[in-house]
Specification:
single chain; alpha/beta; Rossmann fold; 8 helices; about 55% helix; globular; AB_hydrolase_fold
Length: about 220
Amino acid sequence: MRLMGRMLERNNFSAYAPMFMGHGTAEPMDILNLGGPDKWWQQVNDAVDFLKDHGKDEIYAFGLSLGAIFATKAVEEIPEVRAGGVFGSPVLSKDFKNVRDAFMTYAEKAYEIREVSEIEKYENLRTIDSKIDSMLLDIRNTTTSVGNKLAEIDKPYFIGQGMRDKMVDPEAAKRVAQIVKTADFHQYDAGHVLTINRAHKELEGDVLNFLENIEERNA
């Protein structure tokens, strides 16, 4: 999300992008041991409080992939969040098999990069394999709760979806756009991580237009 944040700053928006607990480290197990939906949701609320403490009273929440679930929850439940949006959102996902497979692949590569021994790598991967389903169940429960409230959204809601996305079903984004009456739906000829892949420039332009239109309406 750094590229998106920098673009917004260049266009006179303040940007704040907290790192979800467990993310951003060299140890894949940190996500399972340190993170979780309740902790991540608390971080969202803490981020809103941080912005309010710095004099921001019109807040927009955006999220990529996992972050999209919590950005949507913020749009649904936090009054100070006036609008928001998602990129590669799994908010209607029921099957997280692709996420599970991708995480196991990521973990294996992470240990190879760190050059841990084969024994340590095997033991760590076995531990992750034993823990990941519980985490995914918690995430799925949160996702279901958020998905059930989509029809209640009456704030501007941006949807960006890569049509080559292998992580989440691109068709799900179309269903979200049908449910959310205020949706601003955009498709891109790209994969999952829209904020840095071949679509990122186009995405940035669309998000900026989305926000500037809100600002003009509120002026």
